[in-house]
Structures
1.
Amino acid sequence: MLKLYVGPLSLFSRKVEIALREKGIAYEREFVAFTQERGYEPKHPAVLAHNPKHQVPVLIDGDLALFDSTVILEYLDELCPEPPLYPATPQDRVRCRLLELDADEILFAPVRNLLFRTEPPHADAHTHAARVAAGKAAEGAISARFAELDARLRHDDFFCGALSVADIGLFMTVLFIQRLGGPKLDSHANLARWYRGLLARPAFSQAAAEIAAADRELSPALAAG
Ligand SMILES: N[C@@H](CCC(=O)N[C@@H](CS)C(=O)NCC(=O)O)C(=O)O
């Protein structure tokens, strides 16, 4: 059976779990330790052994060890092609891959400036104020991206025709924006409809519920927030 090492609050781990569940692939999962104070330190031995970047997710399939959510999603789609998580033509596939990259690296970039909201206020008032200001600026950038993404969904329920890795990646980044108190989806009707539609799928609702439960346990600052 496949074995997946995940973090309780790891966006990239949940991408892989959503794909596994959408495809109905059985897997065993092991949570690596995580606290808001120390992050992933000390790193899990399997993560140190199998990922030179020392990050989760890590997937073990027999004597094969893979890392990076994007690489793992591609492997899963080849291993178990039904239901496909990529479109059929090379052009549509690359559009889809670029949207997944957008979720993970471009839309996610300003989200990094919201992550401080999971931590207690910084002891130094100036540092805290600088973080708050950077968070506000990030919210402006995210709102602009929401408007763009909303326009792309004008006529569609999914970003690439049918459910794909683009939806999985974007869902997780939008979920993180919501949990970190970023811009709401209310004024973006198409994006809100798309998000609700995904939340109605068990694979996605389980990811959302598990992140919320992990926050209740690990991120008291968010509740206080
Ligand atoms: N591009 C990687 C990113 C993985 C990543 O950033 N993992 C985080 C948890 S979500 C991690 O393990 N961070 C610990 C570290 O970087 O030391 C992927 O898609 O898997």
Note: Residues 7, 10-12, 40, 54-57, 68-70, 104 surround glutathione (CB under 6 Å).
2.
Amino acid sequence: MQLTFHGAAGGVTGSCTLVQTERARVLIDCGMFQGGAAAEALNRRPLPFDPATLDAVILTHAHLDHSGRLPLLTRRGFRGRIWCTPPTIALTEILLRDSAYLQVEQSTRCLRRRTRGGRPLQTRCIDPLYTDEDVSATLRRLASCAYGKTQEVAPGVSMRFVDAGHILGSASLMLTLSDKGQTRNVHFSADIGENGSPLLPDPHPLPDADAIILESTYGDRDHRPLDETLVQFRSVIDQARKSGGKILIPTFAIGRTQSLIYHLSQMHHRGELNGMPVFVDSPMAVDATRLYQSHRELFDDESKAAMAFGCNPLTFPSLRLTRTGDESRAINNISGPAIIMAPAGMCTGGRILHHLRHGLYKPQNHVIIAGFQSHGSLGRRLVEGAAQVRIMGEVIAVRASIHTMGGFSAHAGRTSLIAWARAASAGRMPRHWFLNHGEDRPRQALADAISRTLGVSPHLPKLGQTFTLD
Ligand SMILES: [Zn+2]
């Protein structure tokens, strides 16, 4: 039995782990590398395995850094099933269609620029990674498996999903491998949510593992407590109201957007928003919000109770959901304070770029960075205090105030990760520990903490590294 880490090994994107026995080959996630040209070049490398030889793929959740390379599998011969939860099926369709659209558009723009500039055309620039047709072929392979149900996915390989509390439909994975009379439980945390986050339940622990693969995005730090973050958020809203400035929030269309809508709706109910318009500027975020609203059975107890009292936690009167490009551009012309949420969450593309281009140079404006910013991304440069940045080929001065608010994170902080690891080892201690989905420093810090608290030494897999499970 072997595990090979083909992504999210020393970084937070490109999740992709191959599980092999003598009888079966199953891939866990096939995500896109994100966050700058060097990371994105990895998406164009040939896959390090033959997709036609895979028996099945298991998708833990819809985020592109877990799902974004799935169309490359079907394009290169994968004909098995891709198992995921029912909400993940719907969210994956939204994300992959958008991803294909953006890639085709980017490549058309690149081709146009090079042609106009009389420069030689580069194949790398012209070809999108995949098209909408590839996405359709991928979506046909998605198969639903509800939380808690045991499903055989390949000879000698069965799986069960439990709620990971990260985004709607997100799952941690319990995999049971049987081969040559041996049985091993291999459990993947995948991306897990922070304990006590709103809307979704806390992540579910995974006991009785022989091997654990745990994410480590925030292995070196805790988020600021949510109540303190909300105080900071309200203070920025007050400042913007006084100065007539706009608050720009780069958000992931799925997950972060809905938790921010939740908090803003609470503020509205307490009379703290004073009718300030809040724009969710993304067709994808609008669709995802509607999907969240249609899966109330997956909300946590607090939100279910609010719903029972007729209080919908995902809407309020000054919330404006904008879909079209014209509606999006019109936001630039409104005067007075407003909150604008738009993807991409790390400012690597999407509508937030045009809002930043129009708003970053104005000192009365604010930017709230509410999520992880990977190395090389525009969001990371803003967090690091860049005085000017380049957006769509234009140099823009950064005069708006930049605020980092970690308390809204959809990822578990260090204390929750350690608590999860402790719960996973409560019955019996897993023999093998692997930390993935984290940059080197947080990953090492979490490894040190786990080794101190549990007396085990986790492996820190490198890209392409294989481990044999005895
Ligand atoms: Zn995620």
Note: The pocket of zinc ion is lined by residues 61, 63, 166, 191 (CB under 6 Å).
